[in-house]
Amino acid sequence: MNLTSIGDLARGLTLRTRSTEIKNKIETLSYELSSGRVQDLSGHLDGDYSHLLDLDRSLSRLDAFKVSTAEAGLFTDAMQLSLNTIAGAVEGITASLLSFGTSNQAVTHENASAQARNELNAIVSALNTRAGGAAFTRAPQRMSLRFRPLTR
To answer: Keyword set for this entry (predicted)?
Structure first.
């Protein structure tokens, strides 16, 4: 029967090598646990980067959605301001026209006509508003309105 024995120097060298390997493994695992990241990414994935690339693609898509959502928010905020302007113009002219309708004076009717023209120009201007390079409507840029004085 053959008995193989290891000498003291060989045993010391083996233990020192194994101790160094264990220290390196503990250091690597401590780093990964504290940071939440793998220290050797290529070794961990074994060359299969498909999951990592899928995550990168998904993050890029989410960034694009974020930009689109911000642009849509800007557009709808500007459109809401334009609609508020139109509502204010309609409210302003409604009361004036109702009060002008009860009087039969030509000067009052001309004033009503002029005010209606101004409010309509304000409404057309609000509809021609652009936000972020996009127009709200396809209305002509400049509308020339010609009203005749109201007569009875």
So the answer is: Cell projection, Cilium, Flagellum
For residue 126, give the nearest of 76, 92, 80, 91 by alpha carbon: 80
CB neighbour class for 112 (10 Å; exposed up to 12, middle 13-18, buried from 19): buried
Residue-level pLDDT at 130: 76
Better-predicted residue by pLDDT, 104 or 10: 10
Domain boundaries, given as residue ranges, for the chain: 8-38, 69-152
Give whole-number Cα distances, 34 to 27, 38, 40, in Å: 11, 10, 15
d(CA 98, CA 112): 10
Nearest to 101, CA basis, from 113, 89, 91, 90: 113
Q: In whole angstroms, what is the distance from residue 21 CA to residue 1 CA?
A: 34
Rg of the Cα atoms in the chain: 39
What is the pLDDT, as a whole number, of residue 131? Answer: 75
Tokens of residue 64, six digits: 């694009």
For 108-135, how does the pLDDT look when each residue is reduced to its tens digit (9 = 90+)? 777 888 888 888 888 888 887 777 777 7
> Would you say 131 and 74 are in contact if contact means Cβ atoms under 8 Å apart?
yes
